[in-house]
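The aim of this short unit is practical: by the end, you should be able to scan a pair of folded records and say something sensible about each. We start with the first protein, listed as its amino acid sequence and then its structure tokens.
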Amino acid sequence: MFDLNTEPHLLLAVFNSMPGAFLLLSREFSIEAISDVYLEATLTERKNLMGRSIFEAFPDNPQTPEAKGVSNLRASLEQVLATGKPHEMARQHYDVPDPENVGQFVERHWLPRNTPVLDAQGQVRHIIHAVVNVTGQVQADRLLRQSQIREVAAWKAVENQRAILQRLFEQAPAAISLFEGPEQRISLANAMMCNLWGRSPGQVLGRSFNEALPELQDQHFSEQIATVFHTQVPFVGTEIPAQIFRQGHLKTGYFNLVFQPLYNEQGQVLGVLNVAVEVTEQVNTRHQVQQLNEKLQVINEELLATNEEVLRTQWALQSLNEELEGRVVQRTQEVQKAQAEAERQRLRLERLFMQAPAAICILGGADLVYELVNPAYQQLFPGRHLLGSPILKVLPEISENKVYRTFQEVFRTGKTHKEQELLIPLARPQDGVWEKRYFNFIQQARNDWQGRIDGVVVFAFEVTEQVKARQASEASTQQLRLITDALPVLIGYLDQDEKYQFANQAYESWFNQKPADLLGHPVREIIGETAYQRVKEYIDRALAGERLNFEASMPYREGFTKHIRTSYVPDWQNGQVVGFYTLINDITNQVAARQSLEASEKQATALAESLLLANQELQQTNQELLRVNVDLDNFIYTASHDLKAPILNIEGLMEALRDQLPPASIHDKSTQYTMHLIVDSVQRFKRTIDHLTEITKLQKENSLEATPIDLATLIAEVQLDLTPDIQAAQAKIELEVGACPSIYFSPKNLRNIMYNLLSNALKYRSPTRTSWIKVHCSQKDEYQVLSVSDNGLGMDLSGKPKLFSMFQRLHNHVEGSGIGLYMFKRIIDNAGGKIQVQSTLDEGSTFQVFFPRNKQ
């Protein structure tokens, strides 16, 4: 060991270069040496710390009053001084001053450990304060919690958007349906479409087009849907005739139809979306006007050929003309009304686009100029003026992105393009900072009245938060997989077909297959037919919805049998069991131990009879030991009395020797040290004699008469005796003894017990927290149980036999004789009671004293 006074330069050089963050503190907590790693971690310089108190150099951050770094560190250092033992602190939030901003602090979290440096006499001379910087870990945990909160919010937003789209579909002003797959199965149909077909949703949903609507089977609609599905080219038709049921009869109606291919998330065609608007009334009105004009033409020709007839029937024609003119006016008004209705429907559709939750825009011409932008699309790019501008002018960031190339391809080829979660980096208008943003979108060509491509229609959704939430979820899933693989328990999941859908790493050591190779295989194939029959009943019960636990012996294969404890947990989804989780613990060793225990119990039964005979001999021996014990107590009393005189003579001779020594010898350090050792030995010898005397008195007082004692009054008297100690410790004492108003015992011995328990709780208190003591009494079976609990230093009860041994102590940093608990236990044992102790280091202790009830 280096001495800081004799070899300071060498010690400091070694200390400074240590690979950890360390401080060397004096007993007054002044900084005497600092490692280079510590300076780097605390953003400090050695010249600014040397000689200063650690609490002056590193005060609490006033912005984090809950941290309490100074008080926690001071309590730990004082405990090290008091006990002479190392103390490892819990993780501390203890910020350090910011060297670049006066009055500001830099966040820091530490794992501190304080270790005493003892001198040759075992006294604490210095304290090594070591810390580990865990700030990065704490900040990472904080970021993870924030990310999880954002993930929940993102899922809620997605669910809300889905609900809005569902309402939009149901309330749309047009008839809408979806035909899925080549079989054209009807998976969606809103109320307007069902009314148009003359059927309820239950009559059409889930059926194919021809099965649900047989009257349309020979009208070429099914062929047109198949063409759109296979070519992925939309179909738009106007005034298409169709024979449909109306009031129980087939009638001809006319419709404006759109058949639009719909894609799934992988870009594959899911089905065909049908949007229909009925225009039967407008078509019939136009046909009536055409028929009326044809009739007028015939009449005019007849008038020219038969002028004479015209003259004779002029009066009739005039009346007829008036009637015809009235009918023309009426039909004209009907046509105008139909046109107004069509315009209203157009405006309604336009409002639908503008109010849709999806982002929709129309780009016109080869330069892709914004012609229509709904509010949802504008919100994607706040601060940018879109209408009337080419897309590259307002979004120059996409010039090298895939999205711009697909725009050009759709405009050139007319093929609809769909993207899922495409990354498009965009700059924030307010500060120009680039952000990673993800979008789902469909780009679809727009055709003019001649069928030529003149623009692109875009339907888009921003999914940035969902992507980030999914990425975080995938990371969490991977972490969960690592955790389950680390467990020694077999964790799996079986579906309704009894096939593995999940298996953790523990399966490999049992079945010699990778967990991934088990997936999709039946459990019967993996565990073997014999083992399968053992658990088949439990599998059926789990798939029926029962949660159960069971034990079984499983012969998986020859030479490999396991005793298992298993839990089956059903997986309920939408009111049905879709599978169940399996958790399998290997209890082979426990079963073997249990079987061994049963065999031992049989042997114990056989030994019991022989023990009964031996017990009689033991009772006789015990009586002889009691007589020997009384003789031993008499010897202890005599020996302690006879030893007092020689010790007093030695003490007197020491005083005489001190008076006769020359002054120079008295002040010599070697002489002083030797005399100190002799005096200390004499004092210890005297204390030992006193303790022997106390033990002898205890033996003679075993027969003290027992009387009823008011427990609350006795405790109050003991508290008065201990008042200085209670005030010095600032201890709080809580009493709950109402259940035991009196205890039948020797008053002197009960007072001795109560004094011993309270004084020990005060003496061995923790220096890091306020002392707290609770005295409780209850009735239990044939005992009255007096319990004394504290929050002091606690004890390591692995040495419990030492706890009640004579002259043995578990804490040596405070004064004590080592016989208090020994006498305490002797008193209780002699009275037929018992003692129980629970204790945890640095948390506290509880002593329970069981007093036999008065049987009178």
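Turning to the second protein, read its sequence before its tokens, just as you did above.
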Amino acid sequence: MPTHEVTNQPPPFSGQDVFSTDPALTEGVARWVPADRRDDAVQELTALGLLAGSDEAAGWADRAHRNTPRLYTHDRFGHRIDEVEFDPAWHELMRTAAGAGLTGEAWTQREGSGSHVRRAAGLIAWSQAEPGHICPITMTNAAVPALRHSPELAERWESKLASRTYDFGLREVGTKAGAIAGMGMTEKQGGSDVRANSTLAVATPDGPLTGSTYRLTGHKWFCSAPMSDVFLVLAKTSPEAPPSCFLVPRVLENGTRNPFALQRLKDKLGDRSNASSEVELDGTWGALVGEEGRGVRAIIDMVATTRLDCVLGSAATMRASLTRAVHHTQHRVAFGATLVDQPLMRNVLTDLALESEAATLLGLRLAHALDEGDTELTRLGVAVGKYWVCKRTSTFTAEAMECLGGNGYVEEHGMGRLYRQAPLNSIWEGSGNVNALDVLRAIAKEPASLMALLKEASVARGQLPVLDAALDDLERDCSELGAQDPDRAAMGSRHLVERLAQTLQASLMVTHAPSDLAEAFVASRLGGGKGMNFGTLDPDLVTLAGTTAIARATVSA
């Protein structure tokens, strides 16, 4: 139509290398991946970052979300098959993630090799293409340390879970080049309280699996990625017993299907490209992982690893939201000036950029601790990061969407999908209360974890008085926790975790980020130079850090 001339709209947001244009990622890899591994890591991550920002990957993501998974319980003859069909685009996403070593490969590398940092950087980059398929990728990675509680099971499965080959289809694992793992922990009556589970496991000698075999009967309320090759499942050997952990394959070692009835797929707010299901186990074969009655202990390694991926995935969602907001405001004119040059918008973008940088830095630092075998820091740091970074993401994404105005609310711009995805990582692997109470439990039972976190946060002591004062207050309050009434400590745990997280992030920013960003972060997060919402920085902090912050969030001209 002659009246329809499109002006004052930003160019398409595509064609970026989301790794190379992210200074926090590239600097983290340069800092924490050893020199003998660094060039290969950068080359591989650059290729992955280019694909993540490409039109091709965007097309895969769109199709995987438009054509959501479909459940087929029976074939045309009435045989039970319990299979889920995915759009081919889903398989392209999965194939790329596995091919980039984002499944279990990092666990097979030597300690100190930087393999977990390399994987973390790859996960942040590739998650920005489409986050839904990252769920089974995460579970596959996390299954490796859990299976090491049973060496014979690890020997059979680990190389498949660490493979760079994505081999979709229900076949016996010995015939497959690679395998994907899922998990079935929660039940409808218990949720996060897995000790309330009712699924029963009966020991059965000489079953068709490697290891001590059992037959499981019960219901799992939230079993994600049900077309995975193998699952870690919690069940009890008697109604009064504590849970045990079992490896449950979809196909047994004799080639027959394991009873694994998919009742329905969940209709979820976000993460819609990924299938999540309810499962009935009826005489389903499982092999014991670790010791009987110590399933929570066996699974805790998996949970800690998936929680770290929650931090990394949330950092990726922040970065994806931020770069879209900056891109839009750099090209959109309103009230006589480009949006990015308007003072209040600069406040919003600077504030968002500080938050994103700190989230990425924390995620990579925790991955480095995993590389170094620093179990004390990862024990508490991951729980603290999981609570704070994941919880901040929903508010962050909503603010970034506002930067695009009405365009942000339109599905084609991608912000809606990010917004729907944002709450997931805060809920998955323990909601806010679960993580906050886990922090209290770790401080009480594993005081070395608190000492490790405070030691890490104290690296930057002596550089900014506001940070020093925050550290002093935190150390004092943590030392007094043991004398508090337990109910009072529980009610105050969220605030304590927020302070632990922001103080640790502040120290990391002072140690590793540009000085203007570090000073603005410390002043705004610890010194009161900020209001309740994003975009409420003290104007002097915007003047100090705005140019650097926005430049580091720019991915296209």
